[in-house]
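[Q] Does anyone have a clean structure-token version of this?
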Amino acid sequence: MSDDLEGSFERVRRLAEAAGLPETAVGTSYGTPALLVKGKSFVRMKDAETLVVMCALDEKEMLMELDPSLFFETDHYRGWPAMLVRLAAVDDETLTQRLIAAWREKAPERLARRFGSPAR
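[A] Here you go.
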């Protein structure tokens, strides 16, 4: 893994850890570093500058329209519930929000419900 790719992924991993996403593991997807929940990839590095983030199609369209400087797709991702994020342009707070949303897309329903529930 290149140093640039490793450094970019470390930022993503660190933010996911700080968000407290349960049962998240580091792995690979399509030969690049990824974060997985219960064995399912929810984000992966496309290259050192770009993160692939799972995202509901309606949300993806809205986000790309609202801020195309951060969120985009290539023909490969058209019609697929994933979008691309420009890592150099996105701030940590926005990236953390996207990581949480992507985690929720792939986490088992019971686990996702527990993550957002207030303590009882």
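[Q] Thanks! Anything notable?
[A] Helices lie at 3-19, 57-66, 92-106, 109-116.
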